[in-house]
């Protein structure tokens, strides 16, 4: 039996693109794996405390969820060119030195599949004016690599999500629609692979 750990981080419920796309992944994954286990964690509804140097009694449960997962799905919008602080708090609780590479270079979590679904108000693709402002994907790649969760890591980005809201971006509305449709297509493929 395979297990999916689904984590959402958006502060929005109504109109959240990451919740929409991560939900589509989870729905397709569960249909393809009817006997699979499913754990859902909403880091906005139930935030993880930031580390404060004390034993907060929460890390063991969070680590057990990662241990049990074969697939980890992170739904994370881009906030101020990076990740929500709720996701950072979760990472700080689970990505500890106990999960760094073993002496032989392997990782306890090395065989897990990780899919990161992100929504971005603008575009950060190579060649765009804001390409260098993407601190979300590079940060997640780096921090997940420290605990072996980068070995089967995929990113799915829905970009230009603010094209309907920001008047200066209205010219990109069709591209936003295409990006969202492409994200849905990709998560469906990934969920059933």
Automatic annotation (TrEMBL):
Domain Flavodoxin-like fold intervals: 3-161
Obligatory cofactor(s): FMN
InterPro entries in the record: Flavodoxin_fold, Flavoprotein-like_sf, FMN-dep_NADH:Q_OxRdtase_AzoR1, NADH:quinone_OxRdtase_FMN_depd
UniProt key word Endoplasmic reticulum: no
Residues that span the membrane, as ranges: none
Catalysed reactions listed for this entry: N,N-dimethyl-1,4-phenylenediamine + anthranilate + 2 NAD(+) = 2-(4-dimethylaminophenyl)diazenylbenzoate + 2 NADH + 2 H(+); 2 a quinone + NADH + H(+) = 2 a 1,4-benzosemiquinone + NAD(+)
Binding site for FMN: 10, 78-81
Top-rank lineage group of the source organism: Bacteria
Cofactor annotation comment: Binds 1 FMN per subunit.
Extent of the signal sequence: none
SUPFAM superfamilies named among the record's database cross-references: Flavoproteins (SSF52218)
Enzyme nomenclature, EC number: 1.6.5.-, 1.7.1.17
Quaternary context: Homodimer.
Function: Quinone reductase that provides resistance to thiol-specific stress caused by electrophilic quinones.
UniProt protein name: FMN dependent NADH:quinone oxidoreductase
Organism: Lentzea cavernae
Gene behind the chain: acpD
